[in-house]
């Protein structure tokens, strides 16, 4: 029971001629699915809300965009030329279930950002009868693609429920657009006729009309409503960062899930009873914004545009199709469905024991006891505070004998103590830490002070991680599951003068990232510039985390360099740590177990659950937790829940009672403040 089943579909690939309705005349069928109004302006300067955006007429024109001197606040002033885009070339290529179009950028319009992709492939793949995939990528240069496993197409597509159509607009320099619709009706699921397709090395933008304004999903964000209000024209960032749900509003958080679902309507705006889902498989920093058209704009700063559309038709089938592709959710151990007790900073073992006993004496059915970072010696991983937590090993064994399981927290950062701290000494010797171009180790600051971070994309880091977890459990402390925190990865005050905890650690070192195109790309996305005003400077991608120019992954034998940049795989750090950690704990316990990561990505649910991160004791956060719980169910991580009664601040008794009632219905039900209220 320790292994996780993987869905693999293999069968003979049968040549299939794809019947693609090619529209070469003036929009024809496409016009039947569009309203007749003029396409709205496409924003050329979305970061204008930042006081550090340097927005002006000159900066707008420098992007080769159009500027309206007479525009009022209700109108986009700096906008993209409607003729910006790509033109279909003469040749097409068709193999099996795949159809490729060769495109060339309209060179009559200057590029918006440096390094435009001049020649592009639009690749359409009939993936299953209910899933269609399309990709846009550079025809001249291989680019980074997200390295996660997906269930392959079964090959034989005998009854596709969709149609792919494309056309060229003679009124706009023959700019190409395409749309995907249901075969049995008029529902258009993806439609790029609004224009705005921009493909540069570090800026990729695509815009689609929405079939209806009833759109849900995307994350990880602190959404205040389950349904997005497209009429308010909101925008959100996606990029893994150590930012709690109580961090202001309109924020991005720990995970990266560019997946949304749409509730479809009939032509007279009535619910049709159908839904479809869309995944953009891209791990770079990105943002998404809505317009009342209704339309959706997605911008990312790396990789390729790799979309999957899931045709449902109902919500359950959409999610089934999605998790079939990315991996079915893991089967949690029975004990993890019970009530769990935790607290940041119990301070000592006596306090932990008293809290646990007080709850159980009051009739609370405690099934799992956690140990947070304060059980460690000076917050160093794989250590125990021998003064405040002396006897925790025996206490955990006692809890096990009484039927209570135990989970401990582990952070990825290893303290830079190369004289006495064995995990770091071994890690350097075995070459497991993330490096700079010149081979030196990237050094940041977290809880214990200066630290190094393992590169879980490498086999040697996974082997090192397994040995230390195995030995720690065998010698120091037994546990039944693992809670892996700070794996966005999180650092303290990167690019700032000193870390907030320097008096505690006695070290004022912080990581300072260099200036280059990875650290400071031409467009920073809403996930980054959203914080300019709050920190009173120009935010950088590396703030609160590692430098984007660091290398990761195995060594390419041809180039002699690691195969990834942190710039591309940053949001995959937690994902890369999760499966190895689950494999380890299930191997050493020989049972189903639980891994609880803070940072997740597409597909993380096949190995782990998720808690919704650092919240606070407010009614508003309780409401948000319900939204987050539902969204993560859509993301394929149904085993999730919020910190009941709040991680930060002290709840009122009434609110904590109500939150306990709500939390009883969380799949992952854990209280972090309950001990305050049991007398």
Automatic annotation (TrEMBL):
Main location: membrane
Annotated PROSITE patterns: GLYCOSYL_HYDROL_F31_1
Domain P-type: start-end pairs: 41-79
InterPro entries (UniProt xref): Gal_mutarotase_sf_dom, GH, Glyco_hydro_31_AS, Glyco_hydro_31_TIM, P_trefoil_dom, P_trefoil_dom_sf
Keyword Membrane in record: yes
Residue ranges of the TM segments: 6-24
Pfam families noted in UniProt: Glyco_hydro_31_2nd, Trefoil
Subcellular location: Membrane
GO molecular-function term, one example from the UniProt record: carbohydrate binding
Record's keyword terms, sorted: Disulfide bond, Glycoprotein, Glycosidase, Hydrolase, Membrane, Transmembrane, Transmembrane helix
Biological processes, Gene Ontology terms: carbohydrate metabolic process
Gene Ontology annotations for the cellular component aspect, listed alphabetically: membrane
Domain Glycoside hydrolase family 31 TIM barrel: 331-672
Family: Belongs to the glycosyl hydrolase 31 family.
Protein name stated in the entry: Alpha-glucosidase
The species this protein was found in: Rotaria sordida
Upper classification of the organism: Eukaryota, Metazoa, Spiralia, Gnathifera, Rotifera
């Amino acid at each position: 029971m320790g292994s996780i089943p993987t869905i693999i579909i293999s069968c003979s690939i049968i040549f299939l001629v794809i019947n693609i309705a090619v529209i070469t005349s003036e929009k024809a069928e496409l016009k039947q699915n569009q309203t007749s109004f003029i396409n709205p302006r496409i924003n050329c300067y979305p970061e204008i809300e930042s006081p550090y955006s340097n927005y002006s007429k000159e900066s707008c024109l420098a992007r080769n965009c159009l500027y309206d001197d007479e525009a009022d606040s209700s109108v986009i002033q700096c906008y993209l030329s409607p003729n910006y885009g790509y033109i279909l070339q003469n040749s097409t290529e068709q193999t099996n279930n795949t159809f490729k179009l060769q495109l060339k950028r309209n060179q009559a319009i200057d590029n918006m950002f440096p390094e435009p992709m001049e020649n592009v492939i639009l690749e359409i793949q009939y993936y299953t009868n209910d899933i269609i995939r399309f990709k846009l990528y550079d025809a001249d240069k291989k680019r980074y693609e997200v390295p996660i496993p997906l269930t392959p197409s079964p090959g034989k597509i005998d009854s596709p429920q969709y149609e792919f159509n494309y056309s060229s607009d003679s009124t706009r320099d023959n700019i190409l657009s395409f749309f995907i619709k249901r075969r049995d009706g008029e529902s258009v699921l993806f439609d790029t006729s609004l224009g705005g397709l921009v493909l540069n090395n570090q800026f990729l933008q695509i815009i689609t009309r929405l079939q209806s304004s009833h759109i849900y999903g995307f994350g990880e964000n602190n959404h205040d409503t389950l349904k997005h209000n497209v009429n308010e024209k909101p925008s959100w960032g996606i990029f893994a960062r150590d930012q709690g749900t109580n961090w202001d509003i309109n924020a991005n958080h720990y995970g990266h899930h560019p997946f949304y679902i749409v509730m479809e309507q009939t032509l007279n705006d009535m619910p049709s009873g159908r839904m479809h889902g869309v995944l953009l498989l891209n791990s770079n920093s990105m943002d998404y914004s809505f317009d009342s058209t209704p339309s959706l704009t997605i911008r990312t700063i790396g990789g390729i545009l790799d979309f999957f559309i899931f045709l449902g038709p109902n919500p359950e089938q959409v999610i089934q199709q999605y998790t079939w592709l990315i991996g079915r959710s893991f089967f949690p151990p029975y004990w993890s469905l019970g009530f769990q007790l935790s607290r940041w900073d119990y301070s000592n073992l006596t306090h932990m024991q008293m809290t646990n006993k007080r709850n159980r004496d009051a009739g609370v059915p405690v099934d799992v006891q956690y140990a947070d970072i304060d059980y460690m010696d000076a917050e160093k991983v794989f250590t125990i505070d021998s003064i405040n937590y002396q006897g925790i090993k025996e206490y955990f064994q006692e809890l096990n004998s009484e039927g209570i399981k135990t989970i401990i927290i582990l952070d990825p950062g290893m303290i830079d103590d190369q004289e006495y701290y064995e995990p770091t000494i071994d890690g350097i010797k075995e070459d497991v830490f993330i490096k700079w171009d010149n081979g030196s180790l990237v050094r940041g600051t977290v809880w214990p002070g200066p630290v190094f971070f393992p590169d879980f994309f490498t086999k040697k880091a996974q082997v090192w991680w397994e040995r230390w977890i195995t030995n720690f459990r065998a010698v120091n402390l037994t546990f039944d599951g693992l809670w892996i925190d700070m794996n966005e990865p999180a650092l303290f005050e990167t690019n700032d003068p000193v870390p907030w905890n320097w008096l505690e650690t006695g070290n004022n070192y912080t990581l300072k990232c260099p200036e280059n195109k990875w650290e400071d790309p031409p467009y920073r996305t809403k996930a980054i510039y959203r914080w300019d005003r709050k920190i009173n400077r120009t935010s950088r991608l590396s703030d609160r985390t590692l430098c984007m120019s660091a290398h990761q992954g195995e060594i390419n034998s041809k180039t002699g360099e690691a195969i990834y940049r942190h710039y591309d795989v940053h949001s995959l750090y937690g994902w890369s740590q999760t499966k190895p950690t689950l494999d380890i704990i299930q191997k050493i316990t020989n049972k189903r177990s639980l891994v609880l990561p803070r940072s997740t990505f597409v597909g993380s649910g096949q190995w782990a659950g998720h808690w919704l991160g650092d919240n606070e004791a407010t009614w508003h956060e309780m409401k948000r937790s319900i939204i987050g719980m539902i969204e993560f169910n859509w993301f394929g991580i149904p085993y999730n829940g919020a910190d009941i009664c709040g991680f930060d601040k002290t709840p009122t008794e009434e609110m904590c009672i109500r939150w306990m009632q709500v939390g009883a219905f969380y799949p992952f039900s854990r209280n972090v403040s309950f001990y305050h209220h049991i007398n």
